[in-house]
């Protein structure tokens, strides 16, 4: 038995004895108070019986005596109670002192036993240095076999408690790991969902952009086609107008006599022709200044004028020819 167990056992015995002694003191004081009260009642009854035997005129005197007696009795009861309480307090103090002394004695004995146990243990350890290992093992086995059932049960309970604690810790760790896995799975699912939503939004955005681009290209193509059609229509209308003008309009037959490179040369040629009495017209072209004589109402008249100009040696215009010319303001 260990030192702590002995101390607890001795302390329990001391407390139990003190409780019994205190209960006995309290019961004794209660009995004394009850006995005092009973004696007072008996005295009161005796005094009342004595008063009944006296005559009426003398009855006032016993009443006074009873009051005084009652006061004395009450004073005696008070003193008895105070005495009983003082005795109880003294006995309680004596009991506490005895209990403290017993506890001190128990502690001293426990310390002595603990010192003796340590001394024996040290001596056994010193003596075991020279004992063969097999003898030590035999002693250990004997000590193990000599253990009391209570020690075996205590060790078994401690082992079961330790095993239960280990199991609880393992279950807590397992639960924590499970929660961690669930949280990771939840985060992964949320991330996958977000990635899917982002991808879907990107696809929709690309689709909208492609649709807008296709629409813009279609609009551009439609505008180009419209413009092309308008240009074609305009060109066709202009061609029709030119053809109608050439075929149905008033044609001016002209005799082109020269194509001057600059305005000075053109003015010189125009002066010669006008000096001969010809009506001269000029027209600016990309290749130079066109100099023409006319117009004439028909080709024959224009051709006759051409021959006349070519035959005039003073003019020196051998390369004149007839053209159907339309002024710019009529085109």
Q: Major beta sheet, specifics?
A: 4 strands, antiparallel
Note the beta-strand portion: 5-15%
Query: What is the mean predicted local confidence, pLDDT?
Result: 79
**Helical content (DSSP H or I, runs of 4+):** over 70%
Q: Which class best fits the helix and strand makeup?
A: alpha+beta
Count the E strands: 4
Low-pLDDT parts are 54-64
Number of domains: 3
H/E topology pattern:
HHHHEHEEHE
The number of helical elements comes to 6
Largest sheet strand order: 2-3-1-4
Give the radius of gyration.
75 Å
Cα separation of the termini: 140 Å
Mass-distribution shape: rod-shaped
How does this model look, in words?
The protein contains 6 helices and 4 strands, in the order ααααβαββαβ. It has 331 residues and is of the alpha+beta class. It folds into 3 domains: 128 residues, no CATH class; 47 residues; 80 residues, Sporulation related repeat (Alpha-Beta Plaits), CATH 3.30.70.1070. The chain is rod-shaped and about 200 Å long.
Brief descriptors of the model:
single chain, 331 residues, alpha+beta, Alpha-Beta Plaits, 3 domains, four-stranded antiparallel sheet, 4 strands
